[in-house]
């Protein structure tokens, strides 16, 4: 089943502070969505609204046409995975997985056990005695094996070491291709995770500054390098994100449609056109004063 998420003019306020301001978007395909933003940008706020942990101050959030808050049927379809505090969790992994299986109808215990082995997790130790990275891996196992139609991972990979994160990414891609669902990954690890994303949402200071297909993002951005005057002339009507100058050489990062004819023209003027990464775009779309 494909779920549909409709977010319209959504705001969340804490006192006078807007954690989210007038955010609108739709997610309607079983894809992997990357939600990126700097510290305090509003990622967790948005995800906690999607997971019905709280209600918006303004605007509407609908899942399959229904308001999810206190809506048991919809909440069943959403799984919000985050690194929760497990210091009081005296249960062992085996038991915890059994509990999850009871309330997640798509939970696949065989797959969970396979992941437990992949992540080298001990099943006979209380969760609270596992290392931080292992606890993150436990959350990853629960999130993947539950196969919930809307699965949200809020930076669970932050506690994992690089090889463990790699295992998570590979398993995520593989399981998503076999059991497609909406997966939302919030992260700061943009350059490491960008290849996972089908679509990208960038939040900046509570506002959505970009929602695009990953392929489109990558083809729309370019760096133009060459003699200052030639770069200035070529980019004068373009959306410039960043400029670097070294002697008479200038490198400008632009974002917008760069047609084939533009690329040819750049070449004729001795300019070099290079790609920009999602990380570059993220940095320059979200820089500025705090
Ligand atoms: N319970 C709360 N009470 C007051 N302000 C809050 C609360 N939760 C979040 N905020 C504020 O809302 C803003 C957005 O916070 P949020 O946790 O959503 O950001 P984030 O993008 O997830 O950040 P990070 O990457 O650092 O986890 C921040 O300015 C934060 O201080």
Automatic annotation (TrEMBL):
ABC transporter domain location: 5-230
Pfam families the UniProt entry points to: ABC_tran
UniProtKB keywords: ATP-binding, Nucleotide-binding
Gene3D superfamilies associated with the record: P-loop containing nucleotide triphosphate hydrolases (3.40.50.300)
Species, as recorded: Ureibacillus galli
InterPro entries: AAA+_ATPase, ABC_transporter-like_ATP-bd, P-loop_NTPase
CDD domains, per the entry: ABC_DR_subfamily_A
GO MF annotation terms: ATP binding
Designated name of the protein: ABC transporter ATP-binding protein
Record-annotated membrane-spanning stretches: none
